[in-house]
C-alpha cells in the first residue's frame, strides 16, 4: 500500500470533530489576520490595503462562517456532518479563488505594496478542501 493511501486511510479514521476543529482554527487565524487588515483599512490608516478591501471582506465573512459553524457543530454532535459538508464546499470555493488569484499574479505581476505570498501554503490549502470534499461527498 502506498504511503499516500495509508495516510488517507489514517485521516479517514479521524472523527469529524477533528476536521471541524481544524476549520475553526483556520477561521480564527484568517479572521485575525484579514480582520485586522480590514479594520486598519476602514479606519483610513492603511490606504495601501484599499485595493484588497473586497477580498478582505469576503475573507473575513468566510472566516466568520467557519468559526461560528465549527463552534456550533462541536457543541451539537448531530450537526457535525452537515457543518463539515458546508465547510468543505466553502473552502473548496475559497481555494479555487486562491488558485485564480495566484494565476493572475503569475501572469500580470504581484501587487506592489506590503505583499507576501507562500505557494507552499497555497498548495496545502488547495489539497485540504479536496480531501474534505472526498470525505464528505464520495
Q: How would you characterize this protein structure?
A:
This protein starts with a helix and ends with a helix. By secondary structure, the chain is mostly helical. It contains five helices and no strands. The model has no long low-confidence stretch (mean pLDDT 90). It is 78% helix and 0% strand. The chain is globular, with a radius of gyration of 17 Å. Helix 2 packs across helix 4 and helix 3 (53-75) runs antiparallel to helix 4.
Strand content: under 5%
Biggest beta-sheet profile: none
- Give the assembly state of these chains: single chain
One letter per element, helices H and strands E, the order comes to HHHHH
Mean pLDDT rating? 90
- The secondary-structure class comes to mainly alpha
Distance between the termini: 21 Å
Share of helix among residues?
A: over 70%
Secondary structure tally, helices: 5
Over all CA atoms, what is the radius of gyration? 17 Å
How many individual β-strands? 0
Low-confidence stretches: none
What's a quick, concise take on this entry?
With 138 residues, this protein is mostly helical. The chain has 5 helices and no strands.
Which structural traits does this protein have?
5 helices; 138 residues; 78% helix; mainly alpha
Topology readout:
Elements: H1 3-12, H2 16-42, H3 53-75, H4 80-108, H5 119-137
Helix pairs in contact: 2-3, 2-4, 3-4, 4-5
